[in-house]
Design a protein that fits this description.
The chain contains one helix and eight strands. With 137 residues, the protein is an alpha+beta fold. The chain starts with a helix and ends in a 6-residue tail after the last strand.
């Protein structure tokens, strides 16, 4: 077998393994529909208090699509997330306990690296923007 053909086959195998590993990583929690998180605090006398602090729902790809946060047994915030076809989180709608809503939008470059996070008020006013600058090798 000639060297070029052998090198091409090896390169194709490496690419295939890399793609499969990436796909597996994206799908590894695809069977989880939801999760509830509880916190238990212990007193010096040995008694404890257990409360639910959050619950999350996931789509069929394993992406978190909704989270509800609790404080003292009451809803404090609700977050709803959307994703693009590459699995990147592109938006988040946050609803606070007083009913006020905020929107967060995310942008990515061609390598699926987050390059921007913008937060908007309920009235659509830009409140803040973070930009991400990557140094590559």
């Amino acid at each position: 077998m000639n060297t070029k053909l052998l090198m091409s086959a090896a390169f194709a195998a490496i690419l295939t393994i890399g793609c499969c590993n990436q796909l597996h990583a994206q799908k590894r929690h695809a069977n989880v529909e939801s999760v509830e998180v509880f916190e238990e605090e212990f007193n010096k006398d040995g008694t404890s208090k257990k409360q639910k602090v959050s619950e999350s729902k996931f789509d069929s790809f394993g992406n978190e699509i909704e989270t509800i946060e609790y404080e003292d047994g009451k809803v404090s915030e609700k977050h709803v997330y959307t994703y693009d076809d590459k699995g990147n989180k592109i938006s988040e709608m946050k609803t606070k306990s007083d009913g006020k809503k905020e929107r967060i939008e995310y942008k990515y470059n061609d390598d699926n690296l987050r390059i921007e996070k913008s937060e908007y008020s309920e009235k659509g006013r830009l409140k803040s923007r973070k930009t991400y600058v990557y140094k590559t090798k």
